Amino acid sequence: MPNTNRTDAQLPQGWELISNGCVTDKDKDKDKDKDKDVVLALDFAAVGRPEACFSDLVSMLDPPRETWAARQPPAGTGVEVTAGAYLQYWSEGLRESGREIRAVLGFCAGAVFAVALAGQIARWQARAPVIALLDPEPPTVVTLLRQFDQAMRGLAAVASDAEFASVREAAAGLRDAGNLPWLAAELGSLYREASRPAFERIGLKPDFQADLVTSFESLMSYLVAAGDAGATDGWGSATAIVSATPVFEPAGVARRVCADVDHAGLLRSAAVAQLVSELLG
């Protein structure tokens, strides 16, 4: 039976429940000390992305753990695209929730936020959270361009390469960009330009078109804010779990573990789930 009846509506702003830490009656007494703590997970779980998500990973934790995943600041709420503003959005209400934060997990760019958020929590919590970074990647120009290319591949199913040629050429000319906020705005405009005819071709309603464009722009904002957090500041107490195909080599971490799985499958690996379970204790 579940060890909590908590719902998303009862969580602090900026968080959603992805695991309620469901345990069997047999295990409940054994894990009663874990009933009050919670694991936080930071990632941008874009719809249709090839990578596994934290919901995959936490479903394999042993024992199960109540886990909250970060929501993105809603568009139009005035949250600035800076690391400080995003961290404030996620941290508000955590202390007041009365829950001990057992661990903070971060995947890819979310690792940068995870370290910074764990540092904030450690200032008011008696026990500092465990920090686990899974294929960490401080965002760069290359990161944003790779995400744009991935989004374009998603559109390719309903449009030809020739139709996207001018957009891809324009994106290629941005490789020397030195300013992430400017680059994010440019890529957002290019995505909007490329997606409109593709969406109209498959008869997607305008409100759905707007939602998909907003989602891409939200991803760009998330990466810009992560890039503002300070590349590897405070990583000395973190454990990095790195796939067989990492795009970044974490330096200065307390422990580095290499998993024999590719980047896309890292969060659905049973071996990785076992590693994280061991870190959580």
What is the share of helical residues? 40-55%
Distance between the termini: 21 Å
DSSP strand content: 5-15%
The biggest sheet amounts to: 7 strands, mixed
Strand order of the largest sheet: 1-3-2-4-5-6-7
User: What's the total number of strands?
Assistant: 7
- Mean pLDDT equals 89
Discrete helix count: 9
User: How would you describe the shape?
Assistant: globular
Q: Give the helix/strand class.
A: alpha/beta
Low-confidence stretches: none
Rg on CA atoms, Å: 19 Å
- Spell the H/E element sequence: EHEHEHEHEHHHHEEH
Summarize the structure.
By secondary structure, the chain is of the alpha/beta class. The protein is 41% helix and 14% strand. The chain is built from 9 helices and 7 strands; from the N terminus they run βαβαβαβαβααααββα.
